[in-house]
Structures are given as C-alpha cells and as structure tokens.
Specification:
It is built from 11 helices and 12 strands. With 339 residues, the protein is α/β, with parallel strands linked by helices. The strands form 2 sheets. The protein has a 6-stranded parallel β-sheet, with helices on both faces. A 6-stranded mixed β-sheet has the order 7-6-8-9-10-12. Strand 8, helix 10 and strand 9 form a beta-alpha-beta unit.
Length: 339
C-alpha cells in the first residue's frame, strides 16, 4: 500500500513497502551487518523512493545521545569567530552531528545559562571560547560524559582540551616590526584585561618594547565600548602622542579605526597602525592595514577534532594545541606595497 504524497513517511512505511520486518528496517538504518545484502538493498531503495528521513531527536533520546554538540562564543559578528564556527560545523557534519550555536556576549553568567540550556538539549559535547579566563566558571555544571574543548581563550585551572595560538610570540613580533620602522612611542590598545588572550598579547608587546629598549605604554579598557573618539584623543593623541598604534583584537581595531576617522585622522597615513586579527577587507583599506592573521578555520577544526576524538573514546590527559599565526604586512605599518 503506497502512502499519500503529503504524508511524512515513517520507518513502519519503509518496512511495509520493502516487505521486511520493522526490526530489519531499523537494522539497515543503523548499518547493522546482521541483514542480508538483498534485504538491505530493498530497504535502501524504499528509503530513497519515499524520501524517508529518520527522526534524529527520537533516535537520540532512545540512545541517550543527541547527535548534537554545542558551541558558545562571545561575539558572533567577529570574522575570526565566524570562520572558527564554520570549521566546527564542517567537522561536525562529517561526523553526522549538528552544532547548536549560542553567544555569551562575553558575560560569564550568560555563558552559564546558555550551557545549562545546551545540556538540557542533551548535547554530547561542547566547544567554547570562555567568557572569563581567570577561573573555571562552568565546569561544575557539565554532566559526566559531556566532553568540553576550549578554543581561543585558555581557561585557567581547568582540565579541558584546548586550542590557542601563539599570542605572546606573535604580539612580540608585531611590536618589534613596528620598532624596526623607527617608531618610539608605540601604544598598545586592548580591552577586557582579564582575558587570557589580552594578557598574553600585552606580555608579548612588553617583551618587544623591551627588546627595542623602548618604554611600554599599554592602554587597556574593561570594555570595548569605552574606546570612543574622546578616549583616543585623551589617551593616545594627547601630550604624549603615540607615533604608532598596535590594537590587540578585532573589535579594538574597528573602534580605533572609526574613532580616528571621526577625529580626521587616517590610520596608516597620519599615524602608523598594526592590528592583532586580520580580516577580509583589511587589504581594501587605504592604506592597507597590516595585521596578525590567526588561523581561525584551523583553530575551529582542531577544536572540533579534539572533541570528536573524545566522543569516540580517546582516553588520557587533556591536550593543548597551539597554532602559529602569520604577520600580514601592508602599508599601514610603514611598509611599501612591494614589501
């Protein structure tokens, strides 16, 4: 008996059309070897003809797994984060999983709330860029059997697999490059000083300034929203006017570029500038913006692969993967187009 076109086919329909038992149809769906090739081919042919799609939620509830992982990031508009998310989704898809995405806004309490919500959806694992690097602020709400991998931010005092980049070394190399151009008053602009990435990049900047026998000048704010044109005028362009700027993340870069423009100043032409975090349109600016490129997709891919290794049963202590960056030199730092 053929089913109506408007009716959603079920596994019962598949079994009936293929003239097999429901148990046999289920075994074929789950790639069991205890089915003859003839019956398996018949079931697959009916599945394709009817357009049957398994109810993954129902299957997950029965098997105590959801075929879903969670991912929490602070800022979905950040190109770095967007590329990392894309890579995690690709790895998850290849493993038959979906990704449930959430944003913490950089707020640890909201992060905890989102994790509780994801755990309630029976996720099998979690990839997270922690909102606060100073302590493990969510380990106590992770159930046994739910694996966690952190990326970008290294969570202190927590035993999770992690993926980061060479923040300190890369910031030092960027600072030393600016110093090689002869700039003496190089100012580092950063936000959220409690974050691991900010602390590491500031340490790298200080090391670069010390190596060049220059006095470090770090301008940090608790939140990026403080980086207004008035703040830039007072902190960076005042009596001790900087002769070069090193911004420590993408949001700081965007707000600094915007603030300078409102003050009638062009980054790279009126004041040299280098950014930690490259982005697609950096080379379209005039002058092109020199930047440290983080391998965002590779970082997301490594994080997802670590998670799926755990989901497949890899034992042992936590692993820390550290990826290199690339210094993309354009004109804003003082290099010419042929550099």
């Amino acid at each position: 008996m053929a089913i109506k076109k408007t009716q959603v086919p079920t596994l019962v329909d598949v079994a009936r059309e293929a003239a097999v038992s429901l148990k046999t149809a289920s075994r074929v769906l789950n790639n069991s070897k205890n089915v003859s090739e003839e019956k398996a081919n018949a079931v697959r042919a009916v599945i394709e003809r009817l357009g049957y799609r398994p109810n993954e939620l129902a299957r997950g509830l029965k098997a105590q797994r959801s075929a879903a992982i969670g991912m929490i990031v602070p800022n979905l508009s950040d190109p770095f984060t967007a590329n990392a998310v894309h890579a995690v989704q690709e790895v998850a898809r290849a493993n038959g999983y979906v990704v449930i995405l959430a944003s913490s806004g950089g707020d640890p309490e909201l992060e905890r709330s989102e994790i509780v919500s994801l755990v309630g959806r029976q996720i099998d694992g979690l990839v997270v860029a922690p909102a606060d690097s100073r302590k493990d602020s969510f380990g106590d709400i992770i159930p046994n059997g739910v694996h966690v991998v952190t990326f970008d931010q290294l969570l202190r005092r927590a035993d999770f697999d992690s993926v980061t980049v060479t923040n300190r070394r890369s910031a030092r190399e960027a600072t030393e490059h600016l110093a090689l151009h002869g700039y003496r008053r190089i100012v580092a602009i950063g936000a959220r000083p409690h974050l691991y990435t900010c602390q590491e990049r500031v340490a790298g900047y200080r090391a670069g300034m010390k190596a060049a026998s220059l006095e470090a000048r770090v301008c940090l704010v608790e939140h990026e929203s403080i980086l207004t044109p008035a703040w830039l005028r007072g902190q960076v362009l005042g009596a001790q006017r900087a002769d070069a700027i090193f911004t420590l993340n993408w949001v700081c870069t965007m707000l600094t570029l915007r603030g300078l423009r409102k003050l009638g100043i062009t980054a790279g032409r009126d004041i040299p500038m280098l950014s930690f975090d490259d982005f697609d349109l950096a080379d379209m600016l005039t002058p092109g913006l020199s930047a440290v490129l983080q391998p965002a997709e590779m970082l997301g891919r490594e994080a997802a692969m670590l998670l799926f290794e755990r989901l497949k049963g890899r034992p042992g202590p936590s692993r820390s993967v550290v990826l290199p960056t690339t210094l993309n030199l354009r004109e804003s730092c003082g290099c010419d187009q042929q550099h």
